[in-house]
Design goal:
Elements: E1 2-3, E2 17-18, H1 24-33, H2 38-52, H3 61-76, E3 81-87, E4 94-100, H4 111-115, E5 117-121, E6 124-128, H5 133-146, H6 152-160, H7 168-176, H8 180-194, E7 200-203, E8 210-213, H9 215-218, H10 222-229
Bound molecules: zinc ion.
Length: 240
């Protein structure tokens, strides 16, 4: 399946990213490796999507997060939809809903953001820009060589700073030591650049309250959802 609509709307030199659903073998491999940290999950997701289409290396990071989500959705169900459930935070009622790709709305990335920003941190100005997947990987390689448990959120934030690859020690120090409004700034940057889709509001049928669900969190339990969505048909097992 060729995914042509990507959150950034960046004019790539290719038409889209071609994805295939994970087959049984890959799915078991995926579950057996069951990475613990977000960084390990990212690396595994990358290797799966990279097998589908080498152009993922050229994607902007935010588009890549979206592609990972689509890969999971495609694995669960070829119609790219699935049934989810959540609980109402007000009255605890169990809410069931159906989600399809048309319900997924991108967070707009305006032109100014795409061109890059300048932000003030630790009394200096720094250029911020969205990295590509391969730039992000260079960063992971560097940090993996020196650190064992690097926080994925921190790594995503480092990758937004254009000079962080050149002066990793300086940027790591500056970002980890941020306080007060500097923390707000860093989290805002992450939100602006690296959250490609909007949460979906689900209305509670009992009390009328709403619950915001991130579509990304829904694909976490792929195997379970796959079995739910793909029930056997009568002609699949024939008894004597
Ligand atoms: Zn409710």
């Amino acid at each position: 399946m060729l995914i042509t609509s990507l959150p950034s709307k960046y004019p790539y030199q290719f038409n889209g990213i071609n994805l295939h659903p994970l087959n049984f073998g890959q799915l078991l491999e995926y579950l057996n490796e069951s990475p613990n940290s977000d960084l390990d999950k990212f690396v595994l997701d990358y290797s799966i999507c990279r097998q589908c289409d080498a152009n993922v290396d050229k994607l902007l990071l935010t588009d890549f997060f979206f592609i990972v989500f689509m890969e999971k959705l495609l694995t669960i169900n070829k119609k790219l939809e699935f049934n989810g459930s959540t609980s109402c935070p007000e009255c605890n009622e169990k809410l069931h809903y159906k989600l399809s790709t048309s319900d997924i709305k991108f967070n707009p990335l305006d032109e100014e953001l795409m061109k890059g920003l300048t932000v003030k941190l630790a009394s200096e100005y720094h250029k911020v820009q969205m990295p590509t997947v391969s730039e992000f990987f260079n960063m992971i390689k560097y940090y993996r060589a020196y650190h064992r448990n690097l926080d994925f959120k921190l790594l995503k934030i480092y990758s937004l700073f254009v000079n962080a690859q050149k002066y990793p020690g300086k940027y790591e120090d500056m970002i980890t030591k941020a306080t007060y409004e500097e923390i707000t700034l860093l989290l805002t940057l992450e939100e602006l650049y690296l959250q490609p889709v909007k949460s979906i509001n689900i209305k509670c049928s009992k009390c009328g309250g709403t619950v915001a669900v991130s579509p990304f969190s829904l694909a976490a339990d792929m195997f379970h959802l796959l079995l739910e969505e793909n029930r056997l048909t009568e002609d699949q097992i024939l008894f004597k």
